[in-house]
Amino acid sequence: MSDFQRAREALGARLQGLRADAGLTGRELAGRLGWPHSKISKLENGRQTATGADLAAWAEATGHAALVVSLQNDLSGLETHYRSWRRRLSGGHQHAQREADTEERNARVVRAYEPTVVPGLLQTPDYARHVLLAAAALHQSPRDTDEAVRERMRRQELLYETGRRFRFILWEGALHARVCPPGVLRSQLDRLCGLIGLDTVSIAVIPFSATLPLSLRHGFWIHDRSFVTVETINASLHLDEQADVALYLRAWELYEQVAETGTDAYHVLAAARHALEAA
User: Fold this and answer.
1) pLDDT digits (tens, 9 = 90+) for 117-173
2) Is the same domain home to 192 and 238?
3) What is the pLDDT of residue 196?
4) Cα separation of 113 and 167, whole Å?
5) Tell me, what's the pLDDT at 79?
6) How many CA within 13 A on the CB side of residue 184?
7) 250: pLDDT confidence band, cut at 50, 70 and 90?
8) Are 37 and 72 a contacting pair, CB within 8 Å?
9) Co-location of 241 and 132 in the same domain
């Protein structure tokens, strides 16, 4: 069982205790709240994540209004580790970009591995626009694309700050993925070539020809040695257990062993651009 699920079940057990303390059955509480009984059951058994509004209503209906802040702190701790895209993008992508910026500003060394897409900190505005539009369509979230692109570009100012290190590993497939029109992808590859040699940034590429020590897994970002973020289709995971951080660092080191760097990485990028022009 994941840490997130354990925390969700613990919150559910706490809600169940408040209901029992008020002498209410699940059906009685559902009636007071105007909810289906199934929602009461799912929340108490950790099969559904409560919202802040759910917790406030529950506390009020069970006579424990003074516990609202405490309950919402429990929820905040839970969502620190598992942040649903549905919730994070409810107000658009700009807010999510600001959250990412805060995490990056608090780190001195950021390692990012991406097998399918150019990382946001390296994207051109046009490439970012296509990536963000596709995400908005998938999640059916508000399309604040222009604002989100500007925020993503602002995040990139960190790449040039002395004392920081950004280390990227990409699989060569990410250089060929048509997530945007060919002209946009050409400009994106030019951008990557131009960043090679920047003293605060390293870009490594795992070529198609590499003998892999580990199969290509999902992308991940390691912030210092403090925590890892992993983005899935439905959520962003925040992993801060030291065993998890150590595991992702080992994966990073295995990928790094077979990745091309410096001039060799430039040649892989140039070959991808040439292939795009020849297509």
Assistant:
1) 999 999 999 999 999 999 999 999 999 999 999 999 999 999 999 999 999 999 999
2) yes
3) 93
4) 9
5) 65
6) 15
7) very high
8) no
9) yes
Q: Give the CA-trace dihedral at 236, 238, 239, 240, to 10 degrees.
A: 170
Same domain, yes or no: 76 and 108:
no
Residue with tokens 């994207």: 123
Closest C-alpha among 71, 45, 49 to residue 58: 71
**Residue-number span of the structural domain to which 207 is assigned:** 89-278
Count of domains observed in the chain: 2
- Orientation angle between helical segments 26-33 and 52-61, nearest 10 degrees: 110
From CA 84, how far away is CA 92, in angstroms rounded?
Answer: 13
Do both 184 and 230 map to the same domain?
yes
**30 and 94 in one domain?**
no
Q: For residue range 209-242, what is the model confidence (pLDDT) as tens digits?
A: 999 999 999 999 999 999 999 999 988 888 888 8
Helix (H) or strand (E) holding 188: helix 182-195
Same domain (yes/no): 62, 129: no
How many Å apart are CA 243 and CA 245, to the nearest integer? 6
Q: What global pTM score does this model have?
A: 0.77
CATH number (domain holding residue 217) = 3.30.870
- The residue type of 205 is V
